[in-house]
Amino acid sequence: MRFFIDTADVDAIRELNELGMADGVTTNPSLIMKSGRDIREVTKEICDMIDGPVSAETIAPDSDGMIAEGRELAAIADNIAIKVPLTWDGLKACKVLSGEGRMVNVTLCFSANQALLAAKTGATFISPFIGRLDDLNLDGMELIADIRQIYDNYGFDTQILAASIRTVNHMTEAARIGADVATAPPGVIKKMAEHVLTDKGLAAFMRDWETTGQTIL
Ligand code: E4P
């Protein structure tokens, strides 16, 4: 499973990229707002740093506006994936933009039928939002599993990009089910390294080592 970093915080992206953990980046209007930076400037900086796809989201409500904005965003760098919402207009924009050979990430997906339509319109990525479904006491992972099965049944190339990830368990489950990519906040990715038994075991090793009076360097 590839990891995309769900943030517009360039320092956080840089740290994970240096560890080979940033196969791409996803941004959205809320993340750009949190960064406090100009969308073109911050997106360009991220694109220059990352080899993989960097999602930048349109904000127009209609397909013509999304197409125009998508082309504008795609001009920032070759690795831009244009993000459009899963509305009827978004699907129209996806069809046109993917037909132009551009990467398109169809976002705000909450049902298998929506994912099926995105694949039909040539989406490069479909972004089912796991955490927001879980917030409503629905099962976000069941959605990922349904989409996996449907795409595999018919050989759709659209990649499942598990989004709205809130916990380390979301990462495990997305990988177990076979999501192609998971996009997660930097904090969730760093937390994946943690285990209470690792901390406990390390503390015991250090205590025992101190009693030997030895050094390695
Ligand atoms: C993905 O592309 C979205 O930017 C993101 O995962 C949304 O996550 P949230 O539900 O935590 O805002």
Structural class: alpha/beta
Task: List the ions, cofactors and other small molecules found in this model.
Answer: erythose-4-phosphate
Number of DSSP helices?
A: 11
Low-pLDDT residue spans: none
Residues in helices, as a percent range: 40-55%
Mean pLDDT: 98
How would you describe this protein?
The chain has an eight-stranded parallel β-barrel with strand order 1-2-3-4-5-6-7-8, surrounded by six helices. It has a single domain, classed as Aldolase class I (TIM Barrel, Alpha-Beta Barrel), CATH 3.20.20.70. The protein is built from eleven helices and eight strands. The radius of gyration is 20 Å and the shape is globular. Helix 6 (112-120) links the parallel strand 5 and strand 6 (125-128). It has 217 residues and is an alpha/beta fold. The chain has helices spanning 10-18, 29-35, 39-49, 63-74, 88-99, 112-120, 130-135, 140-154, 168-177, 186-191, 196-212, and strands spanning 2-6, 24-26, 54-57, 80-85, 103-109, 125-128, 159-162, 181-184. The two termini are 38 Å apart. The longest helix has 17 residues, at 196-212. Helix 1 (10-18) runs parallel beside helix 3, helix 4 crosses helix 5 (88-99) and helix 6 (112-120) packs parallel to helix 8. Erythose-4-phosphate (E4P) is lined by residues 6, 26, 28, 107, 127, 129, 131-132, 163-164, 183.
